């Protein structure tokens, strides 16, 4: 899963990146509103964590522009502003959730996971696909109740397919959400990850639709 952190305080941004990466996200960071507006409007993110007090363009203006331009990524607002009127303004502008500073990182991660589930139309924290279960809170995989050891990359791929299992996911989309900006996004590498997963969870779970992409069969 791919997350964008929009925060001008580098210490807070680094803490957020570490926490989100430990929860299975690939994190990108920008420090000002102008850059955030461009990135959020041209890239596809599973989650955006947005501070309101930004240089060059404030976070509320960025959010309003995103929504007016059709950006549908889930947005979690972070701000030191505590007035309830400002929280209402943020929600009315299109935010999906709101967390005032200071906050506990555990709460932010829980809210982030819930936003990602809801955006995919999946309320449950455990996604069941036939005999395969993907626990989004524990970041674990099991087949018929037996835990299966997967790498972080394998987990991210399987959890993304599970959250979007009502459609075929193109390879370009999977590559975009699996790899960071500095990684090589190679279709052969994607095939290799899928091949390893098939050996671990069974050959009939991840389906290949030639020319279209990948989806999960036997959805529960």
Automatic annotation (TrEMBL):
InterPro entries: CheY-like_superfamily, OmpR/PhoB-type_DNA-bd, Sig_transdc_resp-reg_receiver, WalR-like, WH-like_DNA-bd_sf. CDD domains: REC_OmpR_EcPhoP-like, trans_reg_C. Keywords: DNA-binding, Phosphoprotein, Transcription, Transcription regulation, Two-component regulatory system. Residues 124-218 form the OmpR/PhoB-type domain. It comes from Paracoccus haematequi. This is Transcriptional regulatory protein tctD. Residues 2-116 form the Response regulatory domain. Pfam families: Response_reg (PF00072), Trans_reg_C (PF00486). The lineage of its organism: Bacteria, Pseudomonadati, Pseudomonadota, Alphaproteobacteria, Rhodobacterales. One of its GO terms (molecular function) is phosphorelay response regulator activity. One of its GO terms (biological process) is regulation of DNA-templated transcription.
